[in-house]
Design goal:
Strand order of the largest sheet of chain A: 2-1-10-11-7-6
Largest interface: B-D, 88 and 88 residues
Radius of gyration of chain A: 24 Å
Oligomer: homotetramer
Shape of chain A: globular
Distance between the termini of chain A: 69 Å
Strand content of chain A: 5-15%
């Protein structure tokens, strides 16, 4: 029996979304124990809140976070929308920045959005070249997902073993997810997907290959949708910096409401019925699939400019609380932070604005510029974070605990001595410092920094695409012509 | 008598444009001598070629370089077009990049384009608030310029004297251009405009104030159009690095065809009839005029990404000629150059894409992103240039002269010893090295580097706009909310 | 009664040092509770280990970590040595780098070393100008400290309140430590010192002013030594990122042995007998004291190059474990990390090498170069950390917990799927990833990153010293002469 | 007949040095013509002035620019000294910085200094391993050079042809200098050395191989001293940006007194008597020779910090002349320029301070730190130059010519309009702007920028040495130990 994805009614808001995650009996492990109900776990809850924000924003600002879907002839959450224009692609970025501002962290729903918009044209192309029927299957599945307004987790990154070897060359054949059995009614897959963003908070996982493949790697060329609670799936929750502070109280965590989520997803012979298999063995399409997905996903990192907005605001606030908001070097640092942050935004917007239609009818961003955007994302949040810590001062890493502040004996002394300028409560100053700690060293530094570095591919992956994408031959001709070199000779 | 701007027939291409510049009897000084006919001067000619390319591109690719003008109800060169949509603003960038690729230098026509699109809404606003009739006058003048397809030079930067003092505080009142006499039929202006790009190659100069002004500075708040050959104007041609190589031969100059042009324009009591006066004394509008113009003009520096394309191509070509195109650090440097270059492009495109309409009906780019674009332009060409020199090797600054190469005795030895890989002519290797020298140290380094730094305002000017433009209060609220700070308290 | 600093016998090694900290009955608060015995607390213990390494190194490598003291005519730990030559100052750096390598964190003993070498000449100068007897007192106290081989914590940074106001302008006069009462036999001080490195692990605290002072701030100009267990002192232990992992087990913490320590030290009317007061009211000497101390201390950050060695090694090891040690971009990133790391080392060494003698007879480093060194320290560890995370891959922030790895059900699956190349134990791969997490996001990121930013003064403080220190007038003369400008005119 | 190097009496100062270059009948080509007397050529003269400064400084400041030579038991110019201590190596850097300040350009004498200190130990080692007698020969030759106080040009860089092939693999065997004939009394060499700094201004050229060699490359492994006027040598003078301005007048050139010099040296079967052959065929020593020489020479680029001092001074002066010296962003940029400039100095000093003795008795710098120093030199002058242009403003590239300023009609207007603040002569403002142009785009930009990039090896060469030099295995062990990894298993 396959897992049965709930709910049966469309999810209308964040509260209903939270409810939809209950009672699924997922195998989720954290600190060596199976979590009885992830929705109620204090470490997991903030990540669910972040995902829920994608539902609530669609209610509060439908122009920003919904779109009209031709598949269901009605409005859908923009995260589930098959883009119909360049403006649709740009609109995703606007929504992403806003959600970054609202949550200050990774809200996890972009991978699925980008995966849907990747598999849509890829299945169309495979069908055209191979006479398969994947595209129709995929449309049917997407239509169902849109109707119920579900979360789709895109599962791409394999664990990879020895990075110098291809999937089929590994000592252990399970280092990349593969089809281990083909039955008349479906396939059985095995392996593990690492760094899975929001998987525990998803209704469906969309399995995809992670890299270029050769004929020997055919069994690894598989795209399939599986319900998050399908038998055989185990989730091992990844530790994040300062994760346990979420269990201690609200002050020290910095951002008590929201957090990201990464887990390792073990697939122990999971059965997928044929209707949910969208690629099986067409290895030549693994490379274009990955390039398309990463093109889409790399400019999705515009979300980090929303997170950056929060951090810039926090840095400005702490300068204000310290009594020195107008000092020239502080103002200059805020301008530099904004300059870097807007560069992430602008390069993403440019990539989306210059989208082109696929043969399947959806639109996809400019691949070169999408990679330029992501390359900046691997650098600038670190510099923005460093500048935020600069403006915060040393207190960002030396503050006493919430319990000390609440201690009847030393608490009042701490309130006295940790005060900033007149008119600012010491607790507020501490709160903003803890937020900066959260975003530069703590739970949300994981999403703002490290995940910015590696999500959608590590920096070198972008450099390779940029190097390939610039039409160097045309540039050489431009130079030769101006230099007076006769190239016909 | 005012100057009489020719031609009387519309200019249709670069050749006609060149012809239109002849016999104007301009007072142009270079090396202490009045230039008899600028069109024939070997140092000036390449700058005219670059401007002419803006005419020829409109013939070759009208979709890129022309637009439909509602003022004349017909096609106009895009450089003279009053933008009617965000797409129009984006299209300017596409045209600019292409012209940068074609010329490898500054083609000088953007200032006028951006000035027209600035004065258009500003006059509209002054009229609305002050009941003046500037906007109608301006439309009439633009209509005439469009009909004849003329070059408009935008003249903004004053010589400034002591930079710590306002115009009216200077010891010498002529340090900023001002109205020295008001007559019934017009005004008389005096002063000097520095760093005037393409002024000698223009048909009209559009005088504008250079900075925020106060009531005391009223006489300095003047916008007016004057024919380039109006009595009282003297042009002193600015020296550029390696300018005299253009007089020596074609090989050593690197880019024999194209160059930029800067001059100092002395205005010695130039009379302007009322029809060509568009602001006179409304000092409060100087600041918004400058901010709007710089917003427009700063994202026009997308042209430098076209110039960057040439330099990247040159660097790739020299690596190829040296026999080492595939070496990993060389490929990585080319990718880095492209990454920086595309960032200039993308941030400009994003600024243009996010244009908004003015009350006067034309569109103007996002000011924050336009400044982000320009800020990158003040940094990245220097790094791209450094990397190009890195790939070029030391020969870029130690090559012998063309005359040595042509010397019957040592010439053949030079051909032998300066050869790169098999199959590449030594002369071609030298030509590409000279192009890189031209763009990083020589004539076109002026435009690619220094003018990128200071054109449309020096780096600090952008930082101030960025710092002001980011709505820091909103960002503070985002941070406070996530930190759990009650701001209502 | 003043506190009584133990021990009574010289401390000979790390074990004796640990013992010396026991039974002192310090008021140390952590998580809202008074710590019964800091030496036994799992969060505090790693910081004591780091300090203990300064004792053990002196045993293992006396040439590196001891010196001959003329005060006691015998060997002393180099951290207590009054420098007698430029080589002595350089030798401090060599010892610091080695201890950074051994501990991977802040070993806390440098502040005292640098403070001793600052107060030594400052008291000499005050005596000379004011006829006081501070220098003799100070020598006597240092002699005693050297005899017993104690840890001196240098306590400089006040809590500061409103940063835009001087000490005497604050609403609350206690925002800077000050003398609140003068008695015949001593003074009483009140206030708080923030970000106190290793204070709980010290035997003595050497109180110093934190900034330039005016006549109004006279009561704040106080230098005094107080035993760490003096009545009236309370320590509030600062929270560090991931601090509680030290209480969970050894695997997830990354570096189980060593950590830094920061605390807030509350001084509630602490009495200091006259023999331990070294400045009292000589406010004019606050500025030179701070400049000298920071000059000394800023080049002490050479220690971070030792910590950087560990992080470079960790990054190289994880690339090796992943099977890709020889890939060109990885090798290039390791070279870049080393380049940055050696720059910290080299600029510190240069500052120390160019030391000059003070009138008191000890040597102090070149102030300009010391600030150049520290300025790099505020930037490069962040970039080195980013590159380390780049080489680590996403797993650095998504690994499961130690308990999951030890779980009988999922543990073996995790060992299977988290494996790297053949021949490397999965646990070892996890260990090195956790070390990188520890140093870039976790406990020791506090010392390697944030403390590098703010310790010994925030970045702007160094920029001001650099700007003042470069003799700009002399540089102007160089330029004027070459430009042919006659400056005598 | 071999060339006869003059003079016969020791050169005592710059004037005598200039005289020593006369009447040598060198074959020097420039602009296709043989230069009758290089000493009198206006383009060459400034480069001779720069070299002459090395003589005059030895007179004016013997402590800085001379040393006691044991070879002649008397004082020698420090550029000819075989170092006898680490202090000697540091002293070279101090002298180099000073000469950079005096000349604002490349004074050309370092290559020989570093070459002498490289060949000295290399010949010692070859003799020890091969039983040859090179070292004695070399000492004898150096002794003679010291006696007469001559200039030695170090000639290393071959023209290289196809960079992907070794010397013996080239289509044309002359792409690297080689021995084409061995006679009883000496060898005959052929080939060309590119980018030869100061060759025309030298008395001797010391030929060295340019890279690692194999057995097949044996004929290319040659070290030999040849008089600059030896038969068969032809010099082709390299063009520099703005070189001809030196022929126009003094104002536009920016730095009328001093310039660098690069030429291509053609060796057309030059005979070298055995006494001047120091390596012939010992190919295994080519790699250590190059590594040693580059180690020595890379930290010699400390000279650029002296040139940087001039440029910082010029930028400060122009800000002063413009009336805005105290503006915060200007002061901050000056501090940044100084920070970068002092980093070059400090890393060089550290490399020299950590010198170690060779078996031959001279001292050589720390190779790792020397490469760190040079790596900074390939980056920071570009950034310092960019910041100098930033402070200079646009006028740095748009100034009129000297002839325009002297024109009776427009000259006075130019003096009026190009004035800065009160009290500063317009001409002085122009002079300092021209100096900045000279150093960032003009003649001395060649030395300050491009030659900083490629001299002593291009950036990638340093990265390779840094990558190899950091003992990565030791760093791995540090990390493994702290991570709790048992490496013995």
């Amino acid at each position: 029996m396959t897992g049965q994805c709930r709910p049966e009614q469309p999810i209308r808001n964040g509260a209903e979304y939270r409810q939809s995650l209950r009672d699924r009996n997922l195998d989720v492990y954290l600190f060596g124990e199976r979590v009885a109900e992830p929705v109620d776990h204090p470490i997991i809850r903030p990540s669910i809140n972040a995902m829920a924000a994608t539902y609530d924003l669609a209610v509060e600002d439908p122009a920003l976070a919904t779109a009209h879907s031709s598949l269901i002839d009605g409005p859908v959450n923009r995260f589930l929308h098959i883009t119909g224009s360049a403006d649709d692609v740009v609109a995703q970025n606007m929504m992403q920045r806003r959600l970054g501002q609202i949550t200050g962290t990774c809200f996890q729903r972009c991978v699925g959005m980008d995966a849907i918009n990747t598999i849509f044209p890829i299945t169309h192309e495979i069908d055209r070249e191979r006479g398969t029927g994947y595209h129709r299957r995929f449309r049917a599945w997407v239509t169902g997902v849109q109707r119920l307004n579900l979360v789709v987790g895109g599962a791409m990154t394999d664990v990879k073993g020895d990075r110098s070897r291809s999937p089929s060359q590994q000592d252990d054949p399970d280092m990349y997810v593969r089809v281990v059995e083909r039955r008349p009614d479906g396939v059985v897959i095995r392996g593990a997907k690492a760094h899975q963003t929001g998987a525990v908070n998803s209704h469906w996982l969309l399995i995809m290959p992670t890299m270029r493949m050769t004929a020997e790697d055919g069994d690894y060329a598989v795209v399939a949708a599986i319900p998050a609670d399908a038998p055989g799936i185990t989730y091992v929750y990844g530790r994040q910096s300062c994760d346990t502070r979420s269990m201690e109280g609200d002050l020290d965590v910095g951002n008590a409401g929201f957090a990201g989520q990464e887990s390792l997803v073990l697939l122990d012979d999971v059965f997928v019925p044929n209707d949910h298999v969208f690629v099986d063995g067409e290895f030549e399409f693994a490379a274009p699939l990955v390039e398309r997905f990463t093109g889409y996903h790399r400019r999705s990192y515009v979300c980090k400019s929303g997170v950056g907005d929060v951090l810039i605001g926090a840095a400005a606030l702490v300068a204000d609380y310290n009594g020195v908001p107008g000092v020239s070097h502080i103002r200059d640092k805020l301008a530099e932070m904004a300059h870097l942050n807007e560069t992430i935004f602008a390069t993403g917007i440019a990539a989306s604005h210059r989208s082109i239609p696929t043969d399947a009818g959806n639109w996809e961003p400019d691949n070169l510029l999408a990679n330029v955007c992501k390359q900046h994302v691997t650098r600038f949040p670190y510099e923005i974070g460093r500048l935020a810590q600069d403006l915060a001062g040393g207190a960002v890493v030396t503050l006493p605990s919430q319990q000390d502040l609440e201690h009847p004996g030393i608490g009042p002394l701490l309130v006295k001595y940790l005060k900033g300028r007149e008119g600012v409560a010491t607790e507020d100053r501490i709160r903003i410092l803890r937020l900066i700690e959260n975003m530069t060293l703590g739970r949300n530094a994981v999403g703002y920094l490290t995940e910015s570095l590696h999500g959608a591919g590590s920096p070198q992956a972008q450099r390779i695409v940029i190097g390939r994408g610039i039409d160097i031959a045309a540039k050489k001709r431009l130079a030769a012509r101006l230099a007076g070199i006769d190239e016909t000779g």
